[in-house]
Amino acid sequence: MSTIIPNDKTAVKDERKWHRRHSIIREFSLNTSTHGIPGIARGESIQNRVFWSVSLIGFTAIMIYFIVKAILAYFDYPTQFNLDIVSKWPQYFPAVTICNSSPLRFDKFIEPFLNYTNSLNLTNSNDTSTFSPLQATYIPDFLIDKVNKNESLESMFYSLSSMLYKCTYNGLPCSTADFISFTTAYYGRCYTFNAKMINSNSNSLHYGNENGGNGILELELYVHNHQYVPCFTTGIGVVSVVHDNAQIPLVDAAGIELAPRRKHKLAYKKKQTFLLPLPYTPCTNKVPSDMQTMLTHYNGADYGYVEFVCYQICGQVYAYEQCGCIDPTLWNIRSLTLPSTNKTIFAPLCKSNDTCFIGAVNTLLNSFDLQNIYCFDCLQQCTLKNFFIQTSSLAAVFEWEMNGIKAFVENSSIPLPSDWSAAWRTYVQDSYLVLRVVRETNLIENYTQNAQLNVVDVLSNIGGQTGLWIGISFLSLMEFIEMIYRLSRYQCHLIQVAIRRR
């Protein structure tokens, strides 16, 4: 047998280079921890190599499928809620808002009202002692006219000093100075105790343990029901809501109606919900500019963002663009910024018989495209603080209290009924009530939204899939990097040798 030695030196060198590269790749393939590759490298037949190659490709495809699913699951940003029940004491006493169920005082209302109806030839009367159901139908337009002319309605509302007979917090007296006021279309002037104020620190709020007490607010109120406007007011008493110190009091939606002749107890329990911001939840705590303008009507209160109010504001904007006027029940939302011009206008209220704004708001709320234009910043609140209220009541008026209440009513600024001297006991019973707001428990329910998957979870999931199907780990990647490094280094060596030989 003879051996043929090639005479072409270049061919010999190329073969040596190939053998050197081949040995590096083969060494990697035989020793790598990645499953399947060693089987291909040590295979002694084509069938054996095909078997391991098909197995490696198949399991790699399955691995890639599950890895992609794991990554997509992460970018779905799934969340879960954790409930923690925390015992906290002391804690802030909540804000308490009260409103007389009648928005208007008859004695201050009737004369301007008659002037209005007589000027429009709706009535022809100067009788300030009687009031008919027909006249009551003109009241909404009378109020709308006053608001559109920017005329004050303050004198027609019930002042807190005329209603607040006694006020105590944790056994010590409080006064009208501890309340701030605001106006609603349904209840006139309302008053809030313990609201968070702008430019004040947290120490300005009342704690539940002040004066060694347990957080008990007691208000003795007199509603002067003899001054309710006939055929207009539908109930006698007080409307109250317990809310967070930095939250707008939604009296119309969440108010609890309290009747005279009773001593009412509102026992509260606090619940807090904390949502994750984007990309997990489309939520915000940022107050839009239109809402900031509206909040100036709350006399210095430092109230925050409320999604419900945000939708009311964008509904007002759309109603104005479609109708030239806005919902007449939302007096505080008249300063609006129009998206088409970015101009701020002071919108007029619609007349009571003009229902254009109702159709406009319904159109807006039923169209996602319109909401994206007018309500784009109306996201869910990231922080929600609610109070669950347990109500109960007892009979209120005792004989030994009657004379004190009588003296308070006689010294108030509101005129007495004509038969007061004969029937004052009945009037007192029909207008007097007590409101006690107490803490039911120290326990606070905290609902916290947490991400179900984080980066560590995704990496662990990917590592589990790669290890299960083809045995890849970070060390396997380092082995591959080492092979690339050795091949690159060998190639650089060949280039340097070629340069020196030139």
Automatic annotation (TrEMBL):
Domain of life: Eukaryota
GO cellular component, one term: plasma membrane
Record's subcellular location: Membrane
Chain segments annotated as transmembrane: 50-75
InterPro entries the record matches: ENaC
The keyword Transmembrane helix is assigned to this record: yes
A GO term, aspect molecular function: ligand-gated sodium channel activity
Keyword Phosphoprotein: no
Pfam families: ASC
This protein's UniProt keywords: Ion channel, Ion transport, Membrane, Sodium, Sodium channel, Sodium transport, Transmembrane, Transmembrane helix, Transport
Membrane topology label: Multi-pass membrane protein
Family: Belongs to the amiloride-sensitive sodium channel (TC 1.A.6) family.
Protein's name in the database: Uncharacterized protein
Species the sequence originates in: Adineta steineri
